[in-house]
């Protein structure tokens, strides 16, 4: 019998794989929390091992998904955002962010303005 270890709020359980699959398919809240955790790990992985351009793009995409407003095939991030703030969020220099944003803009991937960034949808 194959089992899976499950931890919940300080408790640990051993369940069979069949029970685990049943738990995932029948518990919407549990599935959403698990998906949220997986997405956070994916973000951390991108920020930890991606190259600087990938990290900038991934951050801007996530911010536009969570805080964006669609406008003319672009999604505007609905709060002011400086190059330094982006750099701080992903652990790089402001100069690196500025260079990358300048490269992405003519390619039509992003639009930038005074403390505003929109991502192509």
Automatic annotation (TrEMBL):
Superkingdom of origin organism: Bacteria
Q: Where is the HTH crp-type domain?
A: 50-121
Concerning SUPFAM superfamilies, the annotation shows:
Winged helix' DNA-binding domain (SSF46785)
- InterPro entries associated with the record: HTH_CRP, WH-like_DNA-bd_sf, WH_DNA-bd_sf
Please name the Pfam families in this protein's record.
Answer: HTH_Crp_2 (PF13545)
- Official protein name in the record: Crp/Fnr family transcriptional regulator
Ranked from the top, the taxonomy reads:
Bacteria, Bacillati, Bacillota, Bacilli, Bacillales
């Amino acid at each position: 019998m194959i089992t899976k270890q499950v931890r919940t709020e300080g408790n640990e359980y051993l369940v069979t794989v069949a029970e685990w699959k049943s738990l995932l398919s029948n518990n919407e809240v549990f599935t959403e929390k698990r998906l949220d955790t997986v997405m956070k790990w994916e973000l951390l992985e991108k920020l930890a091992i991606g190259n600087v351009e990938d990290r900038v793009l991934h951050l801007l995409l996530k911010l536009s998904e969570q805080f964006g407003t669609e406008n003319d095939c672009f999604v505007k991030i609905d709060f002011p955002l400086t190059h330094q703030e982006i750099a701080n969020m992903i652990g790089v220099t402001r100069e690196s962010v500025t260079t990358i944003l300048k490269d992405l803009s003519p390619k039509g991937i992003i639009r930038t303005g005074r403390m505003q960034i929109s991502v192509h949808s």
